[in-house]
Amino acid sequence: MKSDIIIIGGGLLGCATAYQLSKLTDAKITLIERKDIASQATARAACLLTKSRTKLALMQMVQETYNAISELQQIFNDDLGYSQVGSITAVSSIDSHSAIEQLCHVASEFGLETQWLESDEVAAKLPWINADTITKALYVPTDAYIDSALLCNAYANAAKLNGVSIMTRVGVEAILSEANKITGVILSTGERIDAPIIINATGSWVNRLMHPKYGALGTTPVRSHFWISESKPDIFPINQPFAILPDAKAFTRPDVGGLIIGIRESKCISYDSSQWPNDIEDVHFSPDNGWMTLSENAALFEKYYTDIRSLGMAHYVAGPSCYTPDSMFLIGAMETTQGLYVAAGCCGGGVAMSGGIGKLMAEIVLGKECFVDKNLFNPMRFKNIDPYSENFRNQCAEARSNKKGG
Amino acid sequence: MFQIVFIKQVPSSTKIKLDPVSHTLVRSGVKMQANPYDLHAVMAAVEVKKQLGGKIVAVTMGPPSADAVLRQAIMYGADEGILVSDVLFAGSDTWSTSYVLSKVINHLGKGDILWFGKQAIDGDTAQVGPGVAAQLSYPQLTEMTKIVDLDEVSITVNKRTDFGYNIVKVPYPVVITVCKEANVLRSIALNDWERATCSSIQMMNASQLDVDVHKVGLKGSPTRVVGIAVPSVKNETVWLDHPARLGQIIKDLIDNEK
Amino acid sequence: MKSNNSLIRLNEKSCTNCQSCIAACSYGALTFDVYPQFDFEACTLCNACVDTCPNNALHLYIPEDRYNQELIKDGDTIWVVVELNHGRILPVVFELIAEANRLSIQYRQPKKVVALLMGEHSEYLIDHLFKYGTDQVYYAHHPRLNLQLDEDYASVLADLAIKHAPSIILVGATSFGKAVSARAAALLHTGLTADCTALHIDPQSENLIQTRPTFGGNLIASIETKRHRPQMASVRQAVMKTLEPNPKAKGETIKISIPDDLLLSNVQIIRNEIRNTIFSLSDAQVIVAGGKGMKTKANFDYLNELASLLGGQVGGSRVAVDKGWITHDKQIGMTGLSVSPKLYIACGISGQIQHMSAVTSSDTIIAINNDPDAPIFQYAQFGILGNVEEILPLLIAELKMGEKMVDVFQFEL
Question: What is the ipTM of this complex?
Answer without folding.
Answer: 0.92
